[in-house]
Specification:
Blueprint (H helix, E strand, L loop, with lengths): L15 H10 L1 H14 L9 E5 L60 E5 L1 H8 L19 E9 L9 H35 L7 H20 L10 E8 L5 E8 L6 H21 L3 E8 L3 E4 L1 H6 L8 H15 L6 E8 L7 H13 L5 E7 L6 H12 L4 E6 L5 H8 L9
Length: 429
């Protein structure tokens, strides 16, 4: 028998197993509290956990107790006041004192506040990004043989005990026992039949020596059957493992942010918070996702993470410069046959005259045939401009792989993010 012992270190006076059971049981309530917490706090403050509360009534446990009335003919252990047959006075009123939530002041009864506890950073992010994933993530052809997986490659008679195949070993042992016992059992049956025939003969014709000889033969054959081992080292079979190259599910996310003069500081803060939420989501759920940061005004540049979030460079607006740069980077470093390609773009929708048409053509003819998914968020409380309308044309041609949403204020960031990256049931695997 195999025993599994959980040796993960726990905090003092805490049980990891019980905590996980609690989080799973009240997932619905905790998720609602987490969503309220995300809307309250700054997205830039997502790195720490959160203290959340659950109404006490939602964590009450069902209990069984005796109701009013009914015939009871027992006396509970420890009772020193009543004897069998005594009648107990019915309690007056409507039960005990009022608890929390009952109106009116009272000099009796006890209440309970909401149940509060603290989620760790990992637990908090788990609830924040629950049900989200990169859309249309696919297995791509091999880029190299670096990603391998050990898979079973048949059975062998030699191996280590940890890889023994119990089912196959027992099957081999059973087949061996049948094969070794079969001729002995046939000889035993013949001897038993001969003994029975000899004993049925008339006492005058019966041969005592023959009877003794048959009984000795039967005893010898029965011992031979018992001597056949239940399992032998010859029966053991072991699983063999072989290194098998695996298709790579590597992906790259292009973060494209408009930093032109029309983007106010509030717009830029919202865009940075959106991309920070995206960064945390990818860091939490995926190991092989690269990020490419692109800032643009009249010209686009690939920058590092620090410059992407904190540079103060600004200028006019030509969105097509960013799309052209993304396309060049894909051709140079991330061929579509080997990478899952994603783009997330944030802009206020303002663009140079006639450039929106160029953006539409770039997307339809060059980018979208290569991309798995394109997410566009427009940060503006005003009416949409030409860029939005041209993107609507792209969305109509690629409804499953092009999504666009509007963000008015910081409170829209998290709901829009969940809508863009929610898990799709029909997604290809």
């Amino acid at each position: 028998m195999t025993y599994f012992i959980d040796r993960r270190p726990n905090a003092k006076h805490k049980s990891a197993v019980n905590r996980q059971r609690f989080l799973e049981r009240y997932r619905k309530h905790i998720k609602r509290s987490v969503e309220e917490a995300v809307n309250r706090r700054s997205i830039t403050d997502m790195e720490r956990g959160e203290k959340i509360s659950i109404p006490a009534k939602d964590i009450s446990e069902p209990v069984f107790q005796h109701g009013q009335g009914g015939a009871r003919n027992i006396v509970s252990p420890g009772n020193k006041e009543f004897l069998q047959g005594d009648k107990i006075r019915r309690p007056g009123g409507q039960g005990g004192g009022g608890g929390a939530g009952e109106g009116g002041a009272s000099n009796q009864g006890e209440g309970s506040d909401e149940f509060a506890f603290t989620l760790s950073r990992e637990e908090f992010l788990e609830f924040v990004f629950d049900g989200l994933e990169l859309p249309h993530l696919q297995r791509k052809p091999l880029k190299s043989l670096e990603e391998i997986k050990m898979v079973r490659a048949g059975l062998a008679r030699d191996g280590v005990p940890s890889r023994i195949s119990i089912t196959r070993s027992m099957r081999e042992a059973y087949a061996r026992r049948i094969a070794m016992r079969a001729p002995i059992k046939r000889a035993l049956k013949e001897a038993q039949e001969a003994l029975a025939a000899e004993e049925r003969k008339d006492p005058v014709l019966r041969n005592p020596a023959r009877i003794v000889e048959l009984k000795a033969e039967i005893e010898r054959l029965e011992k031979r059957i018992e001597a056949v081992p239940f399992i032998d080292t010859y029966d053991l079979r072991y699983h063999q493992l072989a290194a098998q190259p695996q298709p790579s599910s590597q992906a790259v996310m292009f973060c494209v942010m408009d930093v032109s003069g029309s983007m106010t500081q509030n717009h830029k803060d919202i865009a940075k918070r959106f991309f920070l939420l995206l960064y945390l989501f990818l860091e939490k759920h995926y190991e092989k996702v690269e990020l490419v940061f692109v800032r643009h005004h009249t010209a686009a540049r690939e920058v590092n993470e620090e410059e992407f979030f904190y540079s103060r460079e600004t200028g006019g607006t030509i969105v097509s410069s960013a799309l052209n740069l993304v396309n060049k980077i894909i051709e140079k470093r991330y061929p579509a046959g080997q990478w899952n390609l994603y783009v997330a773009q944030a802009s206020d929708g303002d663009n140079w005259d006639d450039d929106s048409n160029i953006c539409r053509d770039l997307l339809v003819k060059q980018l979208m045939p290569q991309l798995q998914y394109y997410a566009y968020v427009e940060i503006t409380p005003h009416d949409h401009q030409s860029l939005w309308h041209e993107y609507e044309t792209v969305a109509a041609q690629f409804p499953e792989r092009f999504a666009m949403r509007q963000i008015v204020d910081a409170g829209d960031i998290y709901p829009v993010f969940r809508e863009l990256f929610k898990r799709r049931l029909s997604q290809e695997r």
